[in-house]
Amino acid sequence: MNDRRNRRRRRSGNGLVDILNGLLTLLVIGLVVVGGGLFYVASQYYGDGPLREDRVFRVESGNTLSTTANRLEEQGFITNSMIFSQFGSRVEESAIIKAGDFSIPAGASMSEILKELTLGNPLRYAVTIPEGWTVWQAIQRINADDRLTGTIDQLPPEGSILPGSYDYTPGDTRQSVLDAMQLAMTQALAQVWAGREADLPLESPAELLILASIVEKETGIASERPQIAAVFVNRIRQGMRLQSDPTIIYGITLGQATLDRGIRRSEIEERTPYNTYQIDGLPPTPIANPGIEALEAVAHPDSHDYLYFVAKGATPREGHVFAETYAEHQQNVARYREIAAEAAAQAEEEAEAARQALEAQEAEGAAEAETAQ
User: Fold this and answer.
1) Transmembrane region positions (predicted)?
2) Rounded to an integer, what distance in angstroms lies between the CA atom of residue 240 and that of residue 244?
């Protein structure tokens, strides 16, 4: 009897051990499976990716992490969108995706890609408008950028764009870029007008803008702008006409073409709204989009008595010479004409020498060909 009880106790004790062993085995197996799964996920997430060459990936505005993960897998940047989105959102510092274009290097891991899309800087895209361009030129450049959307079919007012570089995200509208350019000009003009010289003979910000556009077209040398501005301010104070060649040109082209020739006498004598040789005061609109330096030059012109200026040399980069009297100005003009004639003669000599060199080369080649025959 006692033996049967002891045997039952031993069997009962062995069964409990078996159960515990079984549970422990399942636990170990579970840990191995979980550990193996985590190792696999981590190796996929942190290991080298499938990309074989550097590529650019675009995140559209409003894309979520899940949407981005799916697009990355579809385009071959990653192998598993679920690992990218679910594991990445738990282990990375940020899971907030930025919009824009991102440069992804070959072999980039999921971790590296997610860091780039959340913490990196998108590629910079910008539209740059040089100082002195007309609105027609500016709109041509904006419309030509194929990373922007929509079109601008109507020209904005001349002078309403502040030259400079304007960043955008691919997919932005062309109108939004134009709006930024116009807002920048509105703000800059208001600030410059508020800080202008007290005795400036201009009645409004619009007049300052018009005169600044003329100054911008008269010289591309920054240091000369206050001098040029002062000449025009002095003329306005004395009731003299501005007599600016760029205004005549704008009246001919309206800023929508380049005048690839000199101004004709008939065009100087023709009375148009933009011919400042024939009209008093300022033309009705700006003739270009002036930069901030031209605006500031008009708001703070130099203090001098010059009323005239003419080009110093044959190229614009040589600047101008200034005069207080018409007689002195005539002497400067005569000197300029001599320099221009000399430059034209030298250019013709160089062109002729180039022609002769080509003719000699061709003749020599023909002679060699004839000898070979």
Assistant:
1) 20-42
2) 12
